[in-house]
Design goal:
98 residues, alpha+beta, TATA-Binding Protein, four-stranded antiparallel β-sheet, 4 strands
């Protein structure tokens, strides 16, 4: 990606979720960074998911930032990629966005 700021989206949920469990259920690859963050490989793009309220294992709010676009789809709209990731992640939980 070029530019000073990477594309990002914030997600606020109606109840807490375990982001790690949701990623595992969705079969999305993620190496942990720490208790609040995970690097995610989604459709060949690299994302950083950060719990902004609580820990990644129980959070109501998280940010998703695009670190590197997919080499197979370099021209894909970053916002649509982030939205698709959040939608797919939330389908594995029993909660909704606020």
């Amino acid at each position: 990606m070029t530019g000073d700021e990477e594309p990002a989206q914030q997600c606020t949920l109606s109840e807490p979720v375990d982001l790690h469990a949701a990623l595992e259920t969705a079969a999305i690859e993620y190496p942990d960074v720490d208790a609040n963050r995970a690097v995610v490989i989604y459709q060949h793009a690299i994302l950083m998911v950060t719990a902004t309220e609580g820990l990644a294992t129980e959070t109501r709010e998280f940010d998703v930032e695009l670190w590197q676009a997919s080499p197979t789809e370099p021209d894909r709209d970053p916002d649509s990629l982030l939205a698709a990731f959040i939608d797919e992640l939330l389908t594995t939980t029993e909660t909704t966005r606020r």
